[in-house]
């Protein structure tokens, strides 16, 4: 029997999520949630570039909390590069980081700005 000269390319799916059930959300809703994440990240970047540090920190924290929800309800292949580790780890990391950033933005004195 001849060897297969054209093997299938390796899957680009997240290996940590191979056993997860597919999302119940339609693909358009998953992509819309990802678009909201991107808009939040862009807003945080604009705030940081214009030296509005508290707003940038708050926007980035809210965006990370939104990403935790996206990671919980969207498929890994839709999220792409933001689905890094297992779903549980990514959700816990995003919640912890987002909550810390929101707390930091709320607790730092504005110093008149």
UniProtKB/TrEMBL annotation:
InterPro entries: DUF3017. Pfam families: DUF3017. Keywords: Membrane, Transmembrane, Transmembrane helix. The chain crosses the membrane at residues 32-50, 91-108. The keyword Transmembrane applies. The keyword Membrane applies. This is DUF3017 domain-containing protein.
């Amino acid at each position: 029997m001849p060897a297969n000269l054209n093997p299938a390319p390796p899957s680009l799916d997240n290996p940590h999520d191979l056993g997860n059930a597919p999302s119940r959300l339609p693909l358009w809703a998953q992509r819309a949630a990802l678009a909201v994440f991107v808009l939040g990240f862009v807003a945080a970047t604009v705030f940081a570039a214009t030296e509005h540090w508290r707003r940038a920190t708050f926007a980035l924290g809210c965006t990370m909390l939104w990403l935790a929800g996206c990671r919980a309800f969207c498929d890994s292949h839709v999220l792409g590069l933001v689905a890094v580790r297992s779903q549980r780890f990514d959700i816990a990391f995003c919640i912890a980081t987002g909550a810390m950033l929101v707390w930091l933005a709320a607790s730092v004195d504005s110093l008149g700005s």
